[in-house]
Every structure is written in structure tokens, then in C-alpha cells.
Design goal:
The structure is a single chain. By secondary structure, the chain is of the alpha+beta class. The chain folds into two domains: about 1-165; about 275-425, Heat Shock Protein 90. It is about 55% helix and about 20% strand. Helix 4 packs antiparallel against helix 5. The longest helix has about 70 residues, at about 160-235. It catalyses: ATP + protein L-histidine = ADP + protein N-phospho-L-histidine. It is an enzyme of class 2 (transferase).
Amino acid sequence: MYKKLRMKMTLFCSAVTGVILLAMTLAGLLAFQNLLDANDAAVHDKEVDSVLAYLEKSRVIDYGQIATMANPRFYTIDLYENGVLYSYDPEEEKQEMMDKIIHRAMEHYGFDVNHPPLGKGITKPLEFSFDHKKTEHLVTFASVPYPYGTFCVVISYARETLERQILYLYVVFTVIDLTALLLLLLFSWFYTGRMLAPIEKNRTKQIQFVASASHELRSPLAVMLSSADALAVADEEDRTGFHEIIKAEGLRMSRLIHDMLSLASADNQTWSMHFEKISLDTMIPEVYERYHMLAKRKGLKLQITLPDSGEEPEVFCDGQRLEQVLGILLDNAVSYTPKGGIIYLGYEKDGARWKFWVADNGPGIPDEWKERIFDRFFRGDISRKEKKHFGLGLSIAGEIVRLHKGKIWVEDREGGGCVFYFTVPGG
């Protein structure tokens, strides 16, 4: 699915950008073509005017001089006087072309080279384009008066250079466009890959989340079903025990579902947050009191560290969510610290932020787990039999800290154990 979506997005992006590129290329080519056409036509007009000006001033026609004025490779010039043809170009093929041009002038425009219009100066009574052997020719008919009559000059200009220039432009732009399309295709492939990578990663995490959740739910459900079956046939004195098992597993499932719903709300960005000014001098001691007796019952000692600064310790946060983070960290510390251990709770001002920590002198956390412990359903010791923790607590704590624009991490504690830190912006 991911590869098909990536391929479709790549083709779509390449197609859209390719169409835009081709449209811009065609617009540029047309502009260049029109510019070259206009420039070529202007040069041609200048050449024709030079030839006609020479003919008008000369009493004797020198075809060699005309040949130097107009490139014979591209120009063919015929002069007619009273029906007599004078030409500096003896090539039979070109004369056949000139005959066709004269025939076209007579047939389509009614122009007779033997009887050109008379005037006091040079006139250009007829100009048109003519295709000969797939090459466009610009044809000019002109009347040049002289003392004994009037010359009819027929000038044909082959636009081979212009056509080669235009062909060269099309080839160059085609190569450029094909290269650009290939680069666009490669760019789109890598870009869509990077763009879809978080989506694919999130999809993979969702699949893993559902699989892990199903596994976690299956365990208490199986215990409840087996206990319910046993309860139906148990003696009266055993029924209370099975009832307690079903109740405990039901509460366990309830906690798991609550945690899963919390994470789902965070993913959907529908987690309600109520920010207000909270006094840490009040909140931290209250959290300490709640967990002090819990730690004592498990043979642990809970110590609290408060800052010495006279500054009022206030933070703009969701107080209940912040207490929830501290509760998750303390609950983990109480669960995993061996009997006789010490748990430390404290906070201090760290620049513009408040920094909180929960430390213990337990077994610690291996380095390879430090980044993964905030992943959902992650439990490094798969053989652990503790049923109160599903690997969701630290994920929830991480989401709460993230919503406060803070940071949470874990470090090794000097002397053994680990320290969980998290920061939130100051008040």
C-alpha cells in the first residue's frame, strides 16, 4: 500500500510539474521563434534594400557585385526587362524554383513580371512566402526604374539558417526538458518518500499498538473467563477468591483501556488541557504526601528536595496533568525499586524553565533502552511478572510533557539507579 501510494504520488507530482514545465518551455520556444523570425526578416529586408539601392544607382548591372551584396547560398535574384531574363545565378534548379515563383505571382496575385508597375522610384508591389523542398522562401518583387525603362527584380531568400536555428532550439529544449523531467521524477520519488515516511511510521506504530493492546487485553480477559467458569462450579468457600480475581483483572483492563484512550486522544489532538498558574510549593508537597505512605508500605523511603531561592515557584500548566506525570514516574520508581531503597523527588529553576526529577537507587536502565522506554507497550524485561504496568505510563507522561512544550528524558544516577527528568516553561 505504501509503495503504491508513493508511486502514485510520484507520478502525479511529476506529471503536474512536467505539464507546467512543458507549457513554459513551449511559451519560451514560441517567444524565441518569433524573435528569431522577426530578426531574420529584418536582416532580409536590409539585404533586399541594399540590392535595390545598388540597382537604382547603377547604369550597368554587375552581377558579381550583386553576388557580394547578397549571399548566393541563400539568395536567388532574377532581373526582367521587357520580358527578357537576366540572372547572376545559372543553376538550373534555382531557375526552376524562380519559374514556379513567377507562376505563383501570376496565378494567385495577378502580377506579371513582364509588365511591372511604373513609378518614379523603387517600389515593392508584391511580397509573399513560398515553400520549396520543405524550406520557406521569402519572395520580393520590385520595380526599379532606369533611364531606358523599368527592371522587374525578383528576389528569393531561403530561410535555411533560421530553420536550423529553430530546430536546434527545439532539440536543446527537448533535451533540457527530458533531463528536467527525469530529475523531477527522482526528486518526487525521494520527496514523497520523505513526506510519507512519518505516515508509514505512524501506521506501523498503530499496527503495533493495536497488536500490543490486543495482547494485553487478551491476558486479563482469559483470566476473567477462566475464573468465571471456575466460579460456576466452585465450592462456596472458594467463590470469594475467584470473585476477587475477576474484579482485579477487570480493574486492570479498565486501567489499560483508560491509558489507551488517553493516548488516542493525544494522537487525535483532542486531549483537553486546562492551563493556569500553579504554585509548586503546594503541588509538589501534595504529591509527596500521596506517595510517601505507599513507598513506606513497600519498605522504601521517599525524600523531597525543594529549591532554596526566594522566587515564587509558579508555573503556567495543567496542574492535574503535571501531577499525573509525577505520579507515573513515582509509581514506576515504587514498583521497580527493591525493598530498602530510596526514591528522590525534587524540582529547581533551570533558566527560563522548571526542571523536575524522580530518582531511585534501583537496578537502573540499560543504555539501549533509554530511548525506547517512552515507546508504547515497551517493557525491556519481557520476563517481568509485574501486572500493574503495561508500558503505557511513560508514553502518556511523554505526551503530557510534549503538550506543555517541554522535554522528558532519563539518565543514570551516580551510585546506581536512574533519574527521570522533565522540564516545562516557567510561569
